[in-house]
Amino acid sequence: MSVIIVQYPLIIVNLKTYEESMGGNAIEFAKIAERVYEKTGISIAISPQLVDLGAVADSSETLVFSQHVDPVTYGKFTGHVLPESIAEAGAVGTLLNHSEKQIPIETIKASIKRAREADLEVVVCVETVEVARKVAALGPDAIAIEPPELIGSGISVSKAQPDIVRGAVGAVKGVNPKVKVLCGAGITNGDDASAALDLGAEGILVASGVVKAKDPYKALLELARAMQR
Fold it and tell me: Residue 182's closest CA among 112, 225, 121?
């Protein structure tokens, strides 16, 4: 099993299924993240496609998160994502309930439980403050607030809708102070990242702002430097 070494503030780079981040490119992003961590000390995790997860985990010291796991156990679950398999492949954590892979609240609860049993860090994505409050009661390690209309827009939630970030932080901490809050959706530069931390977030979840940047290393370095406090 993987040893949890995730630290906050945290940057999670979701590689999604972008062509720019498949296969060997996913490994390159992990190496970029490792270089940025060495330069800044800010913890960075890469979330590749499942098929690339093992190779990415073996390629560098960068933290690796699965994009999803299912609440299944060993046995007859063809096509499902077994948490233990993710941990065995080298992941230290997983995303759950991304807006592109949403699951019901009861499935979130069961998935958190199973991920815990595999010693995985759990970050649950939510779209609203109300859902953030409900998920906080389930005890994940972190909740990422991401209004779906801003995902991939280049318009950061930390600037366009700061009350949502502030509200999510208040709601989550009011239920369970141990749960971290990450800020996602549209974060592309250092000002966006800094604004997220100013609003009480303890990290960021990014994707196209890094993956599709002309210079991914420069883009990720700018985000990390903005989070040095």
Answer: 121
Domain assignment present for 206: yes
> What residues act catalytically?
98, 146
CATH number of the domain residue 151 falls in: 3.20.20.70
pLDDT in tens, 118-149: 999 999 999 999 999 999 999 999 999 987 66
Q: pTM above 0.90?
A: yes
- Residue 153 falls inside a structural domain: yes
The DSSP-derived string for 85-133 is HHHHTT--EEEE--TTS---HHHHHHHHHHHHHTT-EEEEEESSHHHHH
User: Residue 26: which domain range?
Assistant: 10-226
